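Worked example 3 (structure in, sequence out).
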């Protein structure tokens, strides 16, 4: 089986890889090709496509796994697909799904409680990766260091971001490990903001739940330090 995140995020490299495998069971539309975004309502689906708007995804924002409720939807879909592919082990897949959901339900309630005091808070992000996380936890994350998705920050745009942050008293900037932290730190130096490492995916030794837990707690800590 191959699990594709979907929403065209892997469009540039996955189709040639599947074709090169010469495994017809992995072709799009076959049971062995699992679309992770099936059943998930994607945000920011553009009404028109225009390259002048930057790297906009035609199917909608593909970073849906930062909402843990979407994590549950994806897990159930994967379990169903595995049951279709390996019926004799379906009970084990279902048991694992139930354990995952029980753990995640408890953590979602905990995360909501942790971030509840900061509902409505604004956060600056380097790239537009967090609309699902923001929606789930009642945050605003619609101010970006990039002038447009995939377009490197410019001095003029960063000046506008600094002005907006000062006006709205925004004190937290989140940045992914592979992005230019120095840019975020420069903006922070002009606004008194805290820069928070915000990884887009779990690390190799980290579970999905631990990843979301790290995001929630690091953000709450930053909010608490910048009251």
């Amino acid at each position: 089986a191959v699990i594709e995140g979907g929403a065209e995020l892997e469009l540039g490299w996955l189709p040639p890889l599947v074709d090169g495998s010469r495994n017809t069971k992995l072709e799009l539309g076959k049971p062995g090709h699992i679309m992770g975004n099936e059943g998930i309502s994607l945000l920011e689906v553009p009404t028109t496509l225009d390259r002048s708007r930057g790297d906009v995804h035609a199917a909608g924002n593909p970073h849906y796994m930062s909402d843990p409720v979407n994590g549950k939807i994806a897990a159930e879909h994967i379990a169903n697909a595995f049951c279709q592919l390996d019926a004799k082990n379906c009970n084990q897949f279902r048991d694992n799904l139930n354990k995952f959901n029980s753990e995640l339900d408890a953590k979602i309630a905990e995360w909501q409680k942790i971030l509840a005091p900061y509902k409505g808070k604004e956060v600056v992000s380097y790239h537009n990766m967090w609309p699902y996380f923001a929606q789930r936890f009642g945050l605003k994350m619609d101010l970006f260091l990039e002038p447009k998705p995939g377009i490197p920050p410019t001095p003029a745009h960063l000046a506008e971001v600094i002005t907006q942050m000062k006006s709205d008293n925004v004190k937290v900037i989140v940045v992914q490990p592979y992005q230019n932290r120095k840019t975020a730190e420069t903006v922070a130096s002009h606004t008194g903001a805290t820069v928070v490492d915000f990884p887009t995916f779990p690390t190799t030794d980290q579970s999905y739940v631990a990843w979301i837990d790290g995001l929630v707690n690091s953000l709450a800590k930053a909010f608490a330090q910048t009251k």
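Notes: The two ends are 48 Å apart (CA to CA). Residues 90-115 form the longest helix (26 residues).
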